[in-house]
Amino acid sequence: MHASPTSNPPTAHLRIHQYRTLAPGPRVIVLGAVHGNETCGTRAIERLVQALDSGAQTLARGQLTLVPVTNPLAYQRQQRNGERNLNRNLLPNASPQDYEDRIANVLCPLLAEHDVLLDLHSFQSQGEPFVMLGPVDNTGDLEPFAQAAQEQALALRLGPRRIVEGWLQTYAVGVQRRLERTAPGDRAHLLSTDPCYGIGTTETMRRHGGYALTLECGQHQDPQAPEVAWQAIQRTLAHLQLIDQPAPAPTPAVEFLRLTEVVDRLHAGDSFARPWSSYDRVQAGQTIGTRHDGTPVCAPQDGFIVFPNANAVAGNEWFYFAQPSTRSLGG
């Protein structure tokens, strides 16, 4: 397959580039534009397709699958979602109700064919890149996992100094709170009260026995974000030995945080006390925002604001709260 501009991709199919070498090795998949306005991964993947197709770069072993635009409808509209958030409730559906359900019916089996996923994203507020890590090995019901050591090793080699854990566990608690106050509405709103709503690409990959990382490469418009994505892909390929390049060393002086709470925006009149950026520090009791009725929303403890979204739809995530993690990452 040959690279071509993706300024206006067809929405009736996914464009997938797959490279199978003649030597055994890991099966790796890289996704871009799971959210349509997050294009840094798309640019990096297009660059890699061109390099591989021209012979400027060569794979030595294993299999590499590249999906530059994972949600073509959202990408075409230059917005986060097509009809709903593809990176929530990512499950096969025998009776698909919307565009993202139909994408999920293609994407979930594709993920199941691989061993490792790198999902490339960006974020709305200002801030530096960070890696989203999965759980420790466990046999629980929410997110059983048995490859934490391999996932941690890759996280330490993607490049960014900040690593964050605790997504699905924190989201599950948020769902329970949301259920207590949600009245029936449209399907997208009801999905946000589904315990499975927190399941996205990485959670799907882990459920199929692989491991996966989300890399948030920077702010949506940051001109450096595509380079962060490119370097992360190259580091992944070298670490997993798909290319004959020196293995990257672990990133030194990592800041490792854990999400501990998600706070929803309950009303369009809810507003932040200031324009927050991801990982801004806050002190216990500090006002983060104000509800439309004047009730202050304060930091429960000393910690960090994560994923602040001043434009969040009422009933959905407004911001996350994080604290330093006590988990050991190894080396």
Quick overview:
With 331 residues, this protein is of the alpha/beta class.
Can you describe what's shown?
- The chain has two domains: 17-253, Aminopeptidase; 257-324, RNA polymerase II/Efflux pump adaptor protein, barrel-sandwich hybrid domain (OB fold (Dihydrolipoamide Acetyltransferase, E2P), Beta Barrel).
- Helices cover 26% and strands 22% of the residues.
- The protein has helices at 40-54, 72-77, 99-112, 148-155, 167-181, 187-191, 201-207, 225-239, and strands spanning 17-20, 27-31, 63-67, 116-123, 130-132, 162-165, 211-219, 255-265, 271-272, 280-282, 287-290, 296-298, 303-306, 316-324.
- An eleven-stranded mixed beta sheet has the order 1-3-2-4-7-5-6-8-14-13-10, with helices on both faces. It has a three-stranded antiparallel beta sheet with strand order 9-11-12, with no helix packed on it.
- Helix 4 (148-155) links the parallel strand 5 and strand 6 (162-165).
- Helix 1 crosses helix 8 (225-239).
- The longest helix is centred in the N-terminal third of the chain and has 15 residues, at 40-54.
How many structural domains? Answer: 2
CATH fourth-tier homologous superfamily of the largest domain: Zn peptidases
Q: For the record, what CATH class of the largest domain applies?
A: Alpha Beta
**Main β sheet profile:** 11 strands, mixed
Query: What fold name goes in the CATH topology slot of the largest domain?
Result: Aminopeptidase
Helix content: 25-40%
Structural class: alpha/beta
- One letter per element, helices H and strands E, the order comes to EEHEHHEEHEHHHEHEEEEEEE
Radius of gyration, in Å, reads 19 Å
Name the average pLDDT.
92
Query: What is the count of β-strands?
Result: 14
